[in-house]
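hey m, so remember when u said the tokens were messed up on ur end? i reran from scratch. heres the input so u can diff it against urs
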Amino acid sequence: MSDLPRKAVTRTAKLAALPLGFAGRATWGLGKRIVGESAELVGRELQQRTADQLFKVLGELKGGAMKFGQALSVFESALPEEIAGPYRAALTKLQEAAPPMPTRTVHAVLGERLGEDWRELFLEFEDKPSAAASIGQVHRGVWHDGREVAVKVQYPGAGEALLSDLTQLSRFSRLLGPLIPGMDIKPLLAELRDRVAEELDYALEAEAQRAHAEEFADDPDVLVPDVVHQCEQVLVTEWIDGIPLSEVIADGTEEQRDRAGQLLARFLFSGPARTGLLHADPHPGNFRLLPVTPDGESDEGDEGDDGGDGVSRWRLGVLDFGTVDRLPGGLPAPIGHSLRLTLDDEAEAVYELLCSEGFVKESIELDPEAVLDYLLPIIEPARVADFTFTRGWMRSQAARIADVRSPAYQLGKQLNLPPAYLLIHRVTLSTIGVLCQLNATVRLREELEEWLPGFVLDEDEDEDEGVLPTTRPSRAAPRSL
């Protein structure tokens, strides 16, 4: 296995070959149809070949290329099933693993950052990585005090690779657009590029992880491993096992899927209220489902089911705090307020609020009722006590927004996403994508009522005046399902 390709010319050449490959396969597909082969069969084979090339290149390059692939992976639920099938297996690979860097490179980084006697810090250290991602890879070990730890080692040249890849990918974002119907790829790439510096800074990541670990230390439903040691290019945290969410998506029981979905939604909305931070990288590789025994202790082995092995319930393990959004007051109150007004069919009030927050530019005038009609299908999960997230529902939403003939498409093009809401929007969409992959039944409205500022009016608030709440909800005590 060679080192991470760092030379700009090498990485650029690999990425530049992607659109050429897309065009070549399209020509190949046309030729197949000319000679009489089924368009459906040719289309499926074309998608399979495209998926194989795209994610092979993204996975090999790591850096920004793989980060982009992981960001796309949570949206596969939006693809039509005949297209999603060939992509799904390749996308899932990016959620959990990537080609590892050589052992000699790992040892060199550890020696440079921890000192030549770095092995004395560990009672055990496994050279074979347990996970390899876009910026670094993780090794399992035992710290000198006996704690099992995860040692994350950053790839040499990761920063240069990230910036180079995302710049190159943005140049042919139009060609990548059809991968996810209804989604504009270019803003996603721009937002990922803006986050590069934060993801490379393990000190910032350690700070965010410590804040979450402290806040959720006694939480019965969420476990965040604490930070053991941090220095440039190396982050050591407590180890947790459990079932990767990608495995729950592939083979989990209904009970596991529903539990994972409920806890994921709870973590998404409770995190900002409790820590002032939003975990902004919700792809399945960053979460584990941990069985909890009747005595209340987490059994961090990867075995367990819905009771046969003494498991009374499940807990969500949360990893990787390299990308967070800092929200000192919790999620912005206008989100909850506009959502509640939409549920109450208050078209004029919703429209006024969207205008005041910059979702509708001053130069544009829209029909408030049309805006309400556009939003209602999207917020369907919040209209009922519990909602089953499915790929079919996700596909219907994507198709509705992506169909150029539909009123929803025309209206969507006129709406604006203010920069302050960009990351929140992506995290929410990504989380919904994971919930659809899980096929989970979730009591979403319950979580919104408890954690989302502005969703529930204060008793002394005059609803007719449309006054926005000025304070976030008081911190609720951790609770169990």
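this time it looks ok to me. Residues 243-481 form one domain. if urs says something different then somethings off w ur setup not the seq
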